[in-house]
Design goal:
Distance between the termini: 30 Å
Helix content: 10-25%
CATH superfamily: YbaK/aminoacyl-tRNA synthetase-associated domain
Radius of gyration: 14 Å
Number of strands: 10
CATH class: Alpha Beta
């Protein structure tokens, strides 16, 4: 089941999307495989603290974040991975680790690795470890209004 906030937001925006169910997974790579989506097309959400404030970084599942590059791209901000206990309460309608990449729904900025912008379609967790949303990347960008950055590198 899609996270209620996400579901309502996409429906209210009349956004074109497809919801897919898959067997329960934990990692983005497992989710991409279970949903039969390439790891470069599946977007994982990494929770960060930027100068102590929660933020989302969205990147292809096949990549990992480079915190030093992100810090430089953000003008020298202090960037670190957020721990589960620091962000769990911010997502009351989501399973931990399955947050959809729409930070404005949860009061936080979204940064996205620009490699995803080159994709025709984007897929991402929909609030649970068994549901994925697929939608045109251009529609995702219009709705989420992320800041595009080149940050990740292959794992």
């Amino acid at each position: 089941m899609l996270a209620p906030r996400l579901h309502n937001f996409l429906d209210d925006a009349h956004a074109p999307y497809t919801a897919l169910e898959h067997p329960r997974t934990v990692t983005a790579q497992e989710t991409a495989n279970a949903a039969h989506i390439g790891q470069r097309h599946f977007a994982k959400t990494v929770m960060l603290k930027v100068d102590g404030t929660l933020a989302m970084m969205v990147m292809p599942a096949a990549y990992r974040i480079d915190l030093t590059r992100l810090s430089r791209a953000l003008g020298g901000s202090v960037v670190e991975l957020a721990e589960e206990q620091e962000f769990r309460a911010a997502f009351p309608d989501c399973e931990v680790g399955a947050m959809p990449p729409f930070g404005h729904l949860y009061g936080m900025p979204v940064y996205i690795d620009a490699r995803l912008a080159g994709q025709g379609e984007i897929a991402f967790n929909a609030g649970s470890h068994t549901d994925v949303v697929c939608m045109p990347y251009a529609e995702f960008e219009r709705l989420a209004q992320p800041e595009l950055l080149w940050l990740a590198h292959v794992m």
